[in-house]
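Record pair follows.
FIRST:
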Amino acid sequence: MVSQESFVNEGRLTRSRRLSMINIGSLDEKIVLFMEGEVRMPREIGFGVVGLGMGKHHCKAIDAAPNAKLIAVCDVDEERLERMTQQYGCKGYRLYAEMLVDPEIQVVNIATPSGMHAEMGIQAADAGKHVIVEKPADIAPQRVDSLIEAGRRNKVKMAGIFQSRFEPLNIRIREAIQQGKMGDLVGVHGHLPWYRAQSYFEGPHGSWKGTWNMDGGGSLMNQGVHTVDLLQWFAGPVSEVSAFFGVFGHDIEAEDHAVAVLRYQCGAMGTLYTTTCCYPGLNQRITLFGTKGTIVKEEGQLKVWKVMEDVDGAIEREMMDLYGEKKGQNASADPMAVGFDGHTQIVMDLVEAIEKDREPTLSVTQAKHAVEIVCAVYQAGRTGQSVRLA
């Protein structure tokens, strides 16, 4: 198992595609979507990436983002370290503490096991570095609070990773809800029937997965937290949770199947299930319905867009033309089949946030509620009682 001490005490992170940005407004939050083109910023921001499993997607995203430069990578695995330094021509560190004092690095991307996120983010903030932290921000809300406080204390920016918020279809769905096109929300359902082989949880880079102290859980905290975040981003905060979970198809400590019923502050109710037992791995499915319409999506593909005010079906046809057909491998069966465009947009947004001295579009503060919901599901499953969220 990768220990927290080994990552903290040891550690080793171009520029292909250029992207520019357009603003897509919503009622209470600006979402920035980046498309192809050139964008000019006053200076280049140096990045370092720690943890080169999921961190390789961060490297690729930094390499693709304008005005961002990959300065260094950090990992205790020398093979991973050598591969990334060769690929990107950057420095490599085995000691995280050494990377933190590199004067060329302004931002640290943390992609280590989840239970290390807050501590390593706090160390980066105390070193005066801005932070991008992989999902989840950590495995307990109190740890996320400590990370947020470190950012405030050191006056650095802190961004989270929930790249699905940046997908154009998800932005359009959220806008339709906020503009009242679906009426009052009634049902908010998220299902994640994924599959992971036992080997995913084994070996030097897998043994932390599915553990309570490093992964914070199993299919819900690791794979399902993206779905949890998307549901609450669409529908608003969750107020109450009832749940069951268990281990069915793997030799792991935490759950590989979780089922929950959620009540939202807006009054809607919904179901949530996540699993890594569903061979061979099927698409995430989200179903939303209100008093005036229904929307259904699978991964990035729109399945249903039926809204009462769209009498002639023109908006439905437009939406289906834009988002109704998508092909390609996704993360339902392959954990590394993760598109990095959303990561690139988050990198670009943080560069702009630094230059303009504003909060990131997706701050760590915004990433906290998904962790609160997941932890409430686990508490409800353990106690057999519903859990209310403040």
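SECOND:
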Amino acid sequence: MEKPSSILQMAISSLIGLIVLNCVMLGALFAQVPPNPPGRFGPYIGATLSLAVLTLPLIFWRNKIGYMSSIVIGLMCLMSLGPQKFFIEQAANLLFPAIILGSIFSLTLIISSIIALMKKD
């Protein structure tokens, strides 16, 4: 079996990181552990998780639809975990690890997916 390219590795690793981060957020929501996301964001987190899990094998198989949906996932995660949270979130001092990692994972996923889409196969 050939070794996956570094772009593929970055995309898959970032996607797995976002899946774990969203699972922790969903767990905090259900357990009501402060600072937890408001209950109205449960369906949004669930939709992000389901799309991310669906996209994971598509990226592994180097499917262009997988890279396109991973860009959507990156944008969705930037909305909920992006750097703007430092300015609008009251508990940003408690959430800063999730905000920083979520932003890094999201941007890495978006950039690696765009590079993968631009590569000629």
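COMMENT: The first helix runs from residue 6 to 31.
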